[in-house]
Amino acid sequence: MMTIKVNLYAREPMKYLIGVITCALCLLTSTVWGAQVYKWVDKDGNVHFSDRPSKEKTEVVDLPAFRTDPVLERRQKEREELKEKEKAGNAKKAEDDKAAQKEQEQRQKNCTTARERVEQIQTVRRLFRVDESGERHDLSDEERAAALQKAKEDVAKWCE
């Protein structure tokens, strides 16, 4: 019986090597990015930096953020500004919609009142008005017709 051993990596050793190197670099860079830097001063006044805290008084150093390409930073800033403008536009639109809804409700209320007034003028036999002194005066046929005409105009105005 004959056995054949196949080396899987013998066919494409360069791809294998590139894969190993890429994985190693990823592991190394991730530990560097997550590391903290500690700072302390020894007895002689020398300042030391390390990735491990010392027995002496140690403080954590805040490192500046990793700078990226200025073009990418500008684009990111433009995107953020655009999002802010969009939020402001949405807030303005919501405010306008609320005002329009309130106006529509007021128009509906005025329409209902105007229709009730027309119906009242048409069904009530005797209409009157009260003057400044509180006296009641019956409306003549002409005054009644004018009041009815005014009420119909209000219906046309508010109930379009």
Question: What attributes does this structure have?
Answer:
12% strand, three-stranded antiparallel sheet, 3 helices, mainly alpha, single chain, elongated, 5 strands, 160 residues
Brief overview, please?
By secondary structure, this protein is mostly helical.
Structure write-up:
With 160 residues, the chain is mainly α. It has a domain at 38-67. Helices cover 59% and strands 12% of the residues. The protein contains 3 helices and 5 strands, in the order αβββαββα. The strands form 2 sheets. The protein has a 3-stranded antiparallel β-sheet with strand order 2-1-3, with no helix packed on it. It has a two-stranded antiparallel ribbon with strand order 4-5. Strand 1 and strand 2 (47-50) form a beta hairpin. Helix 2 runs antiparallel to helix 3 (141-158). The protein is elongated, with a radius of gyration of 42 Å. The mean pLDDT is 80.
Provide the fold topology.
Elements: H1 13-34, E1 37-41, E2 47-50, E3 58-61, H2 70-123, E4 128-130, E5 136-138, H3 141-158
Antiparallel strand pairs: 1-2, 1-3, 4-5
Helix content: 55-70%
Helices, by number, come to 3
Biggest sheet details:
3 strands, antiparallel
* SSE run: HEEEHEEH
Secondary-structure content class: mainly alpha
Number of strands: 5
Overall outline: elongated
